[in-house]
């Protein structure tokens, strides 16, 4: 629902060096090797190889002599990367003594680079089996119990039902079956926990313990939430061993020093609830859901009919229009004037300071991404835009300053009014004031840099297949949400499908 070509240009420009392996080695290779040598004494031939690229960081493998190290280089210019880097570096430090993480060698703070010594153990996903599920469940329980004693905390409110229903988003009928029980459990405290429950992210140590080697998702959640997520992951793999998993996790949690606000029997019941509910299909890994639609659609094709080659799942926002309220418009106008008159307000509210205004230069290729990206955003209907209501369209002082350069005749109030004039008579209910039936009512040069640059995970997947889409004009299936009607895209045309 926005100009996606602008987003492509900004993302490419900001992350050019971040994604370039040779640039990384030239800039940081020698510095990293010095840190490793100083911390471990490792010496000899050094070699760095790329080992994977994720949304928030790129992973490299370093070998110095016979020793191996993992290097995480976080994406620059991203507030999410800043948060993940700071949380991860802090957690790795507090968990060193108990070998909860790989040995923390050092970091290059200004460039968000973390260095850890690889322990070389087998992944838990490869080691665990039906005859050892109880032992490794206990080991996971001990890990979560131990880290819970070291993690930062803050006060909270609500119940376990609130978190499970709205954050975890289990299937409604499964969650509501336990509603009375979950509503009786108050959440008084949140703890920074690992919410990435993939068993492949843990390695098995020789003493029967586990070590988190790919710590990527730390969030403030109710105490023991990470343990509950691990229970879900184990039960999905070993559905016939739920009782063993629950007993192992609870026993391990206590052995690791974990505590809870509930009696033992209540705590065990909470773990069991997590192990038995079904996750909402909207949150099944998008590639699995989209592939299922693709296979189902192709199975209905005749022998001579073309097949769909790619499938993508997008979020979906059910756009229902309403008249914007005078209160919301007044609040937006006041905000736009305030951030021009006193940009420091932005910093006082906890946001990042505005970056210098940069010319928005785009190459011809960046100005013409495949039509598939536009089709994806059309199927989505602006899921990302809905959050613009409480965030004032993500507009900052730098965005307004850039627009004011094109309208030197306007003062601060005039700039604000120019934006207010772009609000239509009806906008998306619970969505951004500029989000209408045909997308964003703001022209490209008036939108925030945040809106122009943002790419959701689905959009990044489309861009990753950009060359293939433009070269072969592959037929693509888009699935908007888990229950939205699939949309078939072929070349420049889209049409809804029935019965796919």
Shape: globular
How would you classify the helix and strand content by structural class? alpha+beta
Helix count equals 22
Unreliable runs: 1-16, 280-288, 345-367, 490-500
Radius of gyration: 25 Å
Q: Would you tell me the overall average pLDDT?
A: 77
In terms of DSSP E residues, the strand content is 15-25%
How many beta-strand elements?
18
How far apart are the termini?
Answer: 25 Å
Report on the biggest sheet: 5 strands, antiparallel
Which range best describes the helical content: under 10%, 10-25%, 25-40%, 40-55%, 55-70% or over 70%? 40-55%
Describe the strand arrangement of the main beta sheet, using strand numbers.
Answer: 1-2-3-5-4
Topology:
Layout: H1 4-14, H2 16-19, H3 21-40, E1 46-53, E2 57-64, E3 67-74, H4 79-94, E4 103-108, E5 113-117, H5 124-127, H6 133-148, E6 153-155, H7 160-168, H8 172-177, H9 179-183, E7 189-194, E8 202-204, E9 210-212, E10 218-222, H10 225-237, H11 242-255, H12 264-276, H13 286-298, E11 310-314, E12 321-322, H14 326-341, H15 344-348, H16 364-367, H17 371-380, H18 397-404, H19 412-420, E13 427-428, E14 435-436, E15 439-440, H20 449-453, H21 457-464, H22 466-472, E16 476-480, E17 487-490, E18 493-496
Parallel strand pairs: 11-16
Antiparallel strand pairs: 1-2, 2-3, 3-5, 4-5, 6-7, 7-10, 8-9, 12-13, 14-15, 16-17, 17-18
Helix pairs in contact: 6-10, 6-11, 10-11, 10-12, 11-12, 14-19, 17-21
Provide the descriptors you would attach to this structure in a database record.
single chain; 500 residues; alpha+beta; Phosphorylase Kinase, domain 1; five-stranded antiparallel sheet; four-stranded mixed sheet; 22 helices; 43% helix; disordered N terminus; disordered C terminus
